[in-house]
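Box 3.1 A note on notation
Throughout this textbook, protein chains are presented in two layers. The first layer is the amino acid sequence; the second is a token string describing backbone geometry. Keep the layers aligned when reading.
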Amino acid sequence: MEGGVYYLKERCFIAWGGNQELAESVGKALKGKGVEYIVGGSVTDKSEADDIVNNRIINQMKRSSRAIILAQGNIENGKYYFRPNLMFEWGYLLARLPKGSMMVVLIDTPRESVATDLQGSFSEIIPNNLQNNTEKAKWISKKYIDEKLHDRFSPFDVLYNWSSVKSFFEDQLNGSGAPNPEHFKKLLVSSFIPSIYLNDLEFMENIIKRINENPANIGSKSRILANGILSYCKAATLNDDPAKGDYDEIKHSFSNTSNSHDPYVRAIARNYMGKCLVRTALQVADSKKKELLGFAVEHFIEAKNQFERAGLDRQSLEMWLSYVNRSISKTYYNLSYLELSSEYCEFAMSNRQQIISYLDGSFNKTAKNAFEAEYYLSVLDYVEITGDKRLPAFQEIEGKLNRIENEQVSTIWKKVFRDFQRINR
């Protein structure tokens, strides 16, 4: 938290325990690698200048998402002891930060003096051949980058455990949890699927509004992308007719994020760029329509490629491909490429069947019901493309529509009903 608003960037707290000059050198080396840092107790903000040192340090630790402990032990009676202030900071950070967020640098101290397996952090011993603080700082900063444990993230879990995700957002924004901006950013761009299914788009709008309040977040690709997705979802929700709405302005957010270094961000940006182009194409003359739809297909196919390169778990990849493959299929259909449309429609149906099976054990019945509706939408797409109404799944739809009772997913089931009525008349 900074000035009462959330900061979308990693910040590393450096606890120095008698090695302040080395801590300053480490901070400068980290800054050179694009990592923001706080040297414990130093005044980094004018508002902190009059703070009691202990209060200042606690507030600095609260704002930090990771930590480096410069631990130099003193020998007493054959045992290594660390300075009390260092131990206080160490304990506070250990209790607050997620496992794997702390690096302990041992200076003239053996590894066995630290219970690494218990503390959930990784320890490194500074080599004896490093002669000065500049060399040591360079070594420490490189180790910090190289050994940093990356957060395990599954977009599918966002759908599977939406209530937990909402709690995480609230804890992060009210400061009750240690800042975890990397995880926050991934959740931010992955939460629109469940928020649509569960009528929580207003919740996401409030989260993004609070992120936008901090000017320091302006350049964040995740923030830009999330704002674009929100604008698209609101426009698409208000205008169910794809031939209505202004998507030219919205797509700028996706142009600005499609070159992100993160393939996951690139994939999502390309996906929504394609969606904007499709909706724009349906509003223009036929001479321009085909060109825009062709561009849309290119974006969808590139989105698919990027999702496959993003290192996602199987469930998450199936989830995203279920949307992208359907978008490719429908766009090819609008271009009258029926064979390609049919091929990608079958891919989408297969993806959606897999997601339904993955959701079987979830307490989130609404998500499962929503994906059943998504599956039947793909079935209806297939019937429309091929004209073949013999599919058993197509025969099931009327009975399913008669039994739907969950109002939370009524919107998507209304789409199933609408398409069923149109195709079956």
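The mean pLDDT is 88. The longest strand covers residues 66-71.
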